[in-house]
Amino acid sequence: MISRHRHFLRLPRRLLALGSDILCTILSLLLAYFLRFNFSVPEEYFSQILISVPLLVFFRASSFFLFGLYRGGSRYASIDDMLRIIKSGTFGKAVKPASIMGAANLVAANI
């Protein structure tokens, strides 16, 4: 009976961790655009941003789950947890340019 209650306690923590990771992903993309254009993003890039955000969130969240980022406990991290984080981050960074280039081509085709 106690194990069932622990499962319910872990689910909100995992959702909170996923939500914070998604929020950080979105903010990092927006910050990258703002820094690239000296805090004055040209209007023609807004559609690219709107297409890139859902793609980026999908691929990053998928890589987090694919590599088991939320399997371990949040209090104690091991070498295996560190390796999962590195693999997930590397995969997400490899997919990000491809998704942004695809979004740019999609926007250019619609113009």
Task: Please give a structural write-up.
The chain has 111 residues and is mostly helical. It has one domain. It contains 3 helices and no strands. The protein starts with a helix and ends with a helix. The mean pLDDT is 75.
Number of domains: 1
Uncertain residue segments: none
Question: How many extended strands?
Answer: 0
Class computed from helices, strands and strand pairing: mainly alpha
Rg, rounded, reads: 17 Å
Strand content is under 5%
Biggest β-sheet strands, sense, barrel = none
- Note the run of SSEs as H and E: HHH
Give the N-terminus to C-terminus distance in angstroms.
59 Å
Helix content: over 70%
So how many helices? 3
Q: Rough shape?
A: elongated
The whole-number mean of residue pLDDT values reads 75
Short structural summary:
By secondary structure, this protein is mainly alpha-helical. The chain has helices at 2-36, 46-66, 79-110. It has one domain (2-110).
Keywords:
mainly alpha; 3 helices; 79% helix
In terms of topology, how is this protein built?
Elements: H1 2-36, H2 46-66, H3 79-110
